[in-house]
Write a structure and sequence with these properties.
By secondary structure, the protein is α+β, with helices and mostly antiparallel strands. The chain has one domain (20-75): 2-Layer Sandwich (Macrophage Migration Inhibitory Factor). It has one helix spanning 32-50, and strands spanning 20-27, 57-64, 70-71, 74-75. The strands form two sheets. The chain has a two-stranded parallel ribbon. A two-stranded antiparallel sheet has the order 3-4. Helix 1 (32-50) links the parallel strand 1 (20-27) and strand 2 (57-64). The longest helix is centred in the middle third of the chain and has 19 residues, at 32-50. The radius of gyration is 15 Å and the shape is globular. The relative contact order is 0.23. Belongs to the MIF family. GO terms for molecular function: phenylpyruvate tautomerase activity. It comes from Platanthera zijinensis.
Length: 76
């Protein structure tokens, strides 16, 4: 799932030039190597599609247990 909120005032490194902050949550599967690859892919998308330079975003990775997610009236 992806949620984008445009036109949100954001200051990054003291300027209001295009910037982004993202959080990626996964039920298992994240590790330093995977995170590095995902970060590179997301950086490319942000730069080419949204004009956000690689140096102007932060991406936070969360690896969580399935029991932390509710779905269909229960948890995974």
């Amino acid at each position: 799932m992806v949620v984008l909120k445009g036109s949100v005032p954001m200051s990054f490194a003291g300027t209001e030039e295009p910037a982004a902050y993202g959080e990626l949550v996964s039920i298992g599967g994240l590790n330093p190597d995977v995170n590095k690859k995902l970060s590179a892919a997301i950086a490319s998308i942000l730069e080419t599609k949204l004009s956000v330079p690689k140096s102007r975003y932060f991406l936070k990775f969360y690896d969580t247990k399935a029991s932390a997610f509710g779905w269909n009236g229960s948890t995974f």
